[in-house]
Specification:
Length: about 450
């Protein structure tokens, strides 16, 4: 980890980030594997069913992503302040919250699915497939949320290589189970969901083992640091929930935005929905890869706030953003040039493939237009400035919905993409406008 006496360097940024590039590429790889396997085994209705079902689950899954973000920021700040025991307690509190939320979602999966499919606008065939996906997928909810807490702690503590291993095993387990359940047993969308849920449970146990190993390697692990009274201490829980409530709202707004994009495709028909879903996997891969630099910014920003150093904050922002911008340009070019080949590999449905090729340039523009939003997300997460992120997410969502209401009726699926690409621009602009206030808050903290 970077200490107050050792300024962050480009070499250190690379050392911290490269494992997370692979780890983050593996996170959406789960979705890519799901889409690829169902594309090989099914038709447009099967692909659309997975898309709709995954979107229903994502409303609850990604709305709890605050567990990952909040844990990273609080862990990094605790370590920056030299309080390693508290950094461990942050994880245990987050796991407790994750388990409660996850099992609550599992118990309510029936009513959740019923309500969701009453609101969606897919065809009857797509919704039937999607309902089967949702029913199986929620069995993995507790494990999925616990993985947020585990990876958040590993990132905040600087154990990025261990975080990479966690995501690698999740992708491997998921791919193997998908192939078995769908291509082998013919379970269709339900098999995709069952494979993902089972993979998440297997990975949670592995992740906990790796966390214990990280504790012991530092000789700082002690059961005395995690008594029940300490975990549920009101002031500590209030701080954790206080930081995360705005991140929760931000996640809800973001989930609505991406859910709106999926549903906008569904309004255009099964083929458009399937094509948009496949292109979205490209965007998700690049977003997670570029988020690796944002994760490094999270950890270093958190330590800067823990130490009260404006200079460390500015250095972290500059060095991580340099690399992120260069990679974004490269990924946009790569998508535009090589995306057609990948679509030919992933899709056997000729109509879906041709539609996806038509909208590929919009997909290719997203890395360049979205990098500012992703990078600023990391900076604000590390500073635990949830209110600013909440406000940015809400304003950007409202602007996106307004543009979709104007463009989609006039230009069809092209209008859907026009509005969606603008969504990334709004997110970057609103967070950028809030950044000076973030620096001022750190300066006031330093003066005090």
């Amino acid at each position: 980890m970077t200490s107050a006496q050792t300024p962050l360097t480009r070499q250190r940024v690379i050392a911290l980030t490269w494992p997370m590039i692979f780890a983050n590429a593996l996170i959406p790889l789960v979705g890519v594997i799901d889409t690829a396997v169902i594309s090989l085994a099914g038709n447009a209705a099967d692909i659309g069913g997975v898309a709709i079902g995954a979107m229903v689950f994502a409303v609850f899954y990604w709305s709890t992503y605050f567990l990952r973000m909040g844990v990273t920021g609080l862990t990094a700040q605790a370590i920056g302040a030299g309080n390693h025991a508290e950094s461990q307690r942050v994880l245990w509190r987050a796991l407790l919250i994750a388990a409660v939320l996850g099992f609550t979602f599992l118990i309510l999966k029936g009513p959740i699915g019923h309500l969701a499919f009453n609101l969606l606008q897919g065809s009857e065939a797509v919704e039937t497939k999607g309902a089967a996906y949702v029913s199986a997928r929620f069995w993995g909810a507790p494990a999925a949320l616990c993985l947020f807490a585990i990876t958040g702690w590993l990132i905040g503590a600087g154990h990025t290589r261990t975080a990479m291993l966690v995501q690698l095993f999740l992708a491997l387990f998921n791919g193997a189970l998908d192939i078995w359940f769908v291509l082998g047993l013919g379970w269709g969308p339900k098999g995709i969901a069952a494979g993902t849920a089972m993979a998440e449970w297997l990975t949670v146990f592995l992740g906990l083992a790796l966390v214990f190993r990280a504790f012991k390697a530092r000789s700082r692990f002690s059961l005395r640091d995690i008594p029940l009274a300490g975990l549920i201490e009101p002031a500590a829980l209030k701080r954790l929930l206080g930081v995360n409530v705005n991140l929760f709202l931000r996640s809800v707004f973001m989930t609505i935005g991406f859910g709106w994009f999926v549903n906008a495709g569904a309004r255009q028909g099964d083929v458009m929905l399937a094509a948009n879903q496949v292109l979205m996997q490209f965007i998700v891969v690049w977003a997670f890869v570029l988020d690796a630099f944002a994760y490094t910014a999270e950890a270093e920003t958190g330590r800067a706030f823990g130490r009260g150093s404006t200079n460390d904050l500015r250095r972290a922002v500059r060095l991580t953003s340099e690399f992120a911008a260069l990679c974004a340009i490269f990924f946009s070019i790569l998508t535009y040039i090589g995306g057609g080949f990948l679509l030919g590999v992933l899709l056997k449905d000729e109509m879906v493939r041709q539609v996806a090729l038509h909208y590929l340039p919009w997909c290719a523009a997203v890395p360049v237009l979205g990098v500012a939003a992703w990078q600023l997300d990391g900076i604000f997460i590390g500073a635990t400035r949830g209110a600013a992120m909440r406000n940015s997410a809400l304003l950007s969502l409202l602007a996106y919905l307004l543009l979709d209401a104007v463009f989609a009726p006039a230009y069809g699926n092209t209008g859907v993409w026009m509005a969606f690409v603008s969504y990334y621009i709004f997110r970057g602009l609103t967070l950028g406008a809030a950044y000076p206030a973030l620096e001022r808050s750190l300066q006031r903290k330093t003066v005090r």
